[in-house]
Amino acid sequence: MDITLLLLLSLFIVGFLYASVGHGGASGYLAVLSIFAVPVLSYKPIILILNIMVAGIGFIQFSRAGYFKWKLCWPFLLSSLPMAYLGSMMSVKGDIYNLILGLALIIPVVRLLGLIPGEKGKKVELSLPLALIFGLVIGFLSGMLSIGGGIFLSPLLIILAWANAKEAAAASALFIVLNSIAGLMGHRGDIHFGQDSFMWFTSALAGGIMGSYFGSRHFGVLTVKYLLSAVLALASCKLIFFM
User: Which residues cross the membrane (predicted)?
Assistant: First the structure.
């Protein structure tokens, strides 16, 4: 298969699967580009724009399906947005950036494989102080890595029994949109679309549109989730051990 076609197909699959759980997919897109030896630092602003669009579509779909709860989102946003902006302005060396991103990719792999505890039968009330603290940390990491932070927020909401899976997806989608906008503000003047990046953008966006629809209303892509786990695990190893 042509390498360009394989890259586009990989971005489509990543967009589909991430959007199906309310995520924008930035960490997945960065992982795919890393596997194909594309210099990801050059495309961080474009990936943030894609993140905003895909997560925004996901937010609309999950909200229409009745899963969005504002109380699960605003405390994290309050503390994360300024930190996402500050984090995006940090100049991180390529090898350090690759190491941090490689470690961050372990989180969606663990979640996709079902190793993170599932949603609790009984939910508890969200703790405002804890949410504000977690928002600070997630916001800073999101800005520094040029991702939306959904890979951190949604497992957190489920593990602490603050939300079920689809409520977490809906809250994460809005969180990703706004944090990606805050992070993008730190990259003003660095946005450049080339012919290749336009094709990548279109492929991932198409996957995201389809994934958000099926994820909010039908959901069921277990086999491909395992394939995505393998891709992300491979990218994580490449980023950490072969920088």
Answer: 29-60, 72-90, 96-118, 130-162, 168-186, 198-216, 222-241
